Amino acid sequence: MSTPEDVLRNFVRETHATHVDGRLLERFERVTGHKPHRYLRRGIIFCHRDLEGILDKFEGGEPFYLFTGRGPSSDSLHVGHAIPFEFTKWLQDVLNARLIIMLTDDMKLLHSKSLSIEAVRRYDIDNAKDILAFGFNPHKTFLFSNLDYVGGAFYENIIGVARHISVSNIKIALGFGDEDNVGMFYCCSTQSAGIFATSFPGILGTDQEQLRLMCCLIACSYDIDGYFTEVRKHTEKLCYSKPAFLYSSLLPALQDAHAKMSASVISSAIFLTDSPSMVRDKLETAFPDGATDTEALFQYLRFFVKDDQELEKLECGFQSEKLTVKDLRAALTKVVQEQITKFQEDRVQITDPYLKDVMTRRLLE
């Protein structure tokens, strides 16, 4: 069985992405004046495309924007979903950048026949409030639902992209087959239209030529790269700038370092709505006393323990047998409980009027 490290190495080799190395991190800190986020320092954000170009624009005072999204399929995000949003919030602060957040509800409906439009609409609201609880700057952030926004300039870009992408290439990039519905093949174009600033006239700007030249930076998990692969091939043909990417690894499922945490598999995930006792019970079940396979436990510690010295102390303590699995689990439980409690306190502040304001089309600062 391939290890998680093997999977990441294969991704870099097969997609020709570039490793995030010490030289790039040094430049990032020099240009922005901020120490790189722990995800960057620890290799959780492990590779990129064209981040150097974004730093060039930042140094030169040229405009760019951040782009991210979420496919709503449950009434709460889990801690794995939190990773790109926490990191994107940090990027927005450090780069003083505008941000577009897309709810890909159309994709979820096409990928799951069991989901109703009414359920996805309800998930939209719950997930949108979860996302905004990460503290994005409301004056620099626009959040929208695909079911509501698609049309006009956005739809023009969907069509512009779609006419260049072949069905055979989508089958390769996303693993779709003849038995999949026709809408799934089209999702690639819909998801990718957001990488063009011209999809957001009156939001990112009003000058059409400036919007055409503006590029974006996307922080996402590596497993959704297929939705952008084909579009990236055709950006220059469409007279647009290529988007930049920062790719993260995936937080593993509880009890399985080789599986992805999933909102549809309740036992695999810690949800942002979980109580402190639920967090404790799930972690005790996942990492019992005396466990010999500690790979997933250490992955969780690297994701959640913010202080580098504290993390090193835990790792060295376990290696020297001064600390046990129980000790490591206790440390992990404490930081996860603290982060979820803080999130829940912030989530209460996201009212319906606040959500409406962020989802209103207007020129971002």
Automatic annotation (TrEMBL):
This protein's GO cellular component annotations are:
cytoplasm
* InterPro entries documented for this protein: aa-tRNA-synth_I_CS, aa-tRNA-synth_Ic, Rossmann-like_a/b/a_fold, Trp-tRNA-ligase
**One Gene Ontology term from the biological process aspect of the record:** tryptophanyl-tRNA aminoacylation
For molecular function, the Gene Ontology terms on record are: ATP binding; tryptophan-tRNA ligase activity
Q: What's one Pfam family here?
A: tRNA-synt_1b
**EC class of this enzyme?**
ligase
Look up the domain of life of the source.
Answer: Eukaryota
Key words, A-Z: Aminoacyl-tRNA synthetase, ATP-binding, Ligase, Nucleotide-binding, Protein biosynthesis
EC id: 6.1.1.2
Spell out the family assignment given in the record's similarity comment. Belongs to the class-I aminoacyl-tRNA synthetase family.
Q: What is this protein called?
A: tryptophan--tRNA ligase
